[in-house]
Amino acid sequence: MLNHSLVKTLLSLRGNPRACVYTEPLWGIPFYLFMPFMSVYMAALMVTDQQIGIIASVLMLLSAVSSFLGGAITDKLGRKKTTFIFDAASWSIPCLIWAFSQNFWWFLIAAMFNGLREVTANSWNCLLVEDAPRNALVDIYMWVHISQLLAVFFAPLAGLLVGGVGLVPAVRILFLLSFVSMTLKFLILNKYCDETEVGKQRLEETQGVSFSALISGYGAVVRKLFSSPQMVITLSISAFVMITGMVTQTFFGLYATRELLMPEHFLAYFPMIRAATMLSFLFIIQPKIARFGLKGPMIMGVCLYIAAYALLISMPAGNLWLLVICLFLESCAHGLVLPRRDSIQALFINPEERARLNSVLSTIVLLTTIPFGYLSGWLSGIDGRLPFVMIIVIFFVQLTVVLGSRSLSTKNVRAMEAAQV
């Protein structure tokens, strides 16, 4: 086990990558405790499907704004300081609001704070990768996902709590526990992280430069992004993953309980099935397919997504085993697509412009996602299967894009890795 390539990478981590990866479960455990219940929790407090869709769209809109500003904020304040401030604002505060929510308006206010998460997503990503070796990026992102997946095995505790005290009281308790755990994570990460070398350089370069002047420079960044075939493919893949992830995260719980007639406490066990499958996949299958580069596994992953959601919308109600098979296929797809999506973004972005390019890219992705929150809520109000039909169509478009991309060829990827070493 110690000779496994992923284990070697974990043990060799130093500095910021080590602090980022090792503290991730303190965020992941509470997140995966409450997240499966979020939509049914809102529904239990009389929030309609359409309102849930509106909240998702508002979250995406505010995330887009914070993402747009995030690059300049990260350069101006530094990676470390930005991460601490906006982690607390985007997660600690919303957890308290969610814990005491009474109706649609409480969730809307919480979404406004939670939308600030894109600022810290940018700065945290810079902390994670800027001082990390380029040839270890896939494994580092694997460990980010693995640390989150390990947290999922605590999910049955949430199911037991829901079964014991009821949905709404249980989820309120989970949000309070999340506030404590996440805040502790932010404090520890701030203590053991240092500003990156690129971050120090950007702090010097932006000293005396006004925030508005930094924002005004985004025009050149946007032109640079769209002039690069690698960045265009990065943008499209990120958009597809964001849209489908948002729709699934928002409406899977409602579909499973309403249309497939699964008990509410089962929602705590579904993430565990996903996690067990992905962990097995990452440790057993991933080392065997690493030699195939990025494009082949990405194509395979998108095909598995299509198969999983086609099964989801066609299965009869009450068939738990078919749902388990669906989750198995989806989890294998996650294991193929998500780490490679992250690696593509880290690899194709110019390190000297990482903060601003990440910011612009995330903003465009989030703006693209905004209509799909309301659209999926409207579709769910008509028929619970329709949001997932929409996802299947999106995956077919993604498959076409990946198949036609030359940027993802093994030759081009290796050239990019060599250029950044």
Low-confidence stretches: none
Q: What structural class is derived from the secondary structure elements?
A: mainly alpha
Can you name the CATH architecture? Up-down Bundle
Helix content percent band: over 70%
Distance between the termini: 28 Å
Beta strand count: 0
What count of domains describes the coordinates? 1
Tally of contiguous helical segments: 20
Beta-strand content bin? under 5%
Q: Considering the protein shown, what is the CATH homologous superfamily? A: MFS general substrate transporter like domains
Protein described:
The protein has 421 residues and is mainly alpha-helical. It is 82% helix and 0% strand. It contains 20 helices and no strands. It has helices spanning 5-12, 15-34, 38-44, 49-77, 79-99, 104-114, 117-129, 137-152, 155-165, 167-192, 197-206, 211-216, 218-226, 229-258, 270-289, 295-314, 320-348, 354-382, 386-403, 410-420. It is globular and about 60 Å long.
Supply database-style keywords.
globular, single chain, Growth Hormone, Chain: A, about 425 residues, 20 helices, mainly alpha
Ordered list of secondary-structure elements with their pairings:
Layout lengths: L4 H8 L2 H20 L3 H7 L4 H29 L1 H21 L4 H11 L2 H13 L7 H16 L2 H11 L1 H26 L4 H10 L4 H6 L1 H9 L2 H30 L11 H20 L5 H20 L5 H29 L5 H29 L3 H18 L6 H11 L1
